[in-house]
Amino acid sequence: MFGKKKYSDDEIKEKYDNWVKNLSGRTPRLGIKHTEESKKKISDKRKGIPSPMKGKKNSNINLKKWGNSIKGKTFEEIYSKEKSNEIKNKISNSNIGRKISKEHIEKLRILNTGKILSEETKRKIGEKNKGRKHTEETLKKLSIASSGERNSMYKNGHKVSGNKNGRSVYYIIHTPTGEKYFCHGTFKKFCKEVLSKIKPMPHRKYLYRCLKENTTIDGWYFQKLKSLDEININYYIKYE
What we know:
Helix content is 42%, strand content 8%. The chain contains 11 helices and 4 strands, in the order ααααααααββαααββ.
């Protein structure tokens, strides 16, 4: 008469769902402590069942050793090619449609600022991207991202123009009339301001052939230099 009321499965499910809704975001067992009697029942129930952590007292140390052993290795080097492709596909699929917040982007930017890649890392990146071509859509996005005020060199081009640019190239030009010019970072300007006035335009007619064959054609000679040690600069007209 005074025994526990029996509920149907549907009633139990409804009661549980209502209880979970009233937790206000808490996990169901958060803050609930087992009584000594409950602890004893759990202990007795688990007697004879081997612990999943048995024999793994130094699991953190072993994990650290394993981490050090694979440091710097690729997925292919750690796993088989088939397994590595499977892992890569899972990572790729999990990130489809994922958007990174502006705050996260800023944190990544700060984290990678001043970071210097090793020569080995650069080599691996170079090999991975060898022969890779951007789609038209990607090229358009890159162009928009680096145009106008978004470009870090916006209104600062004069700081790296001409021979101020560390990647500027040395050129020598010989004309049929005997003039010899030397350009350092100003070859494009030289073609526009000097050679464009000569018809037909010799830099278009002979330039690539001279550079490829390292020869003189109809008195014209163009050559790209690796260093100034290859010529005596005093014999040339410096074009700035």
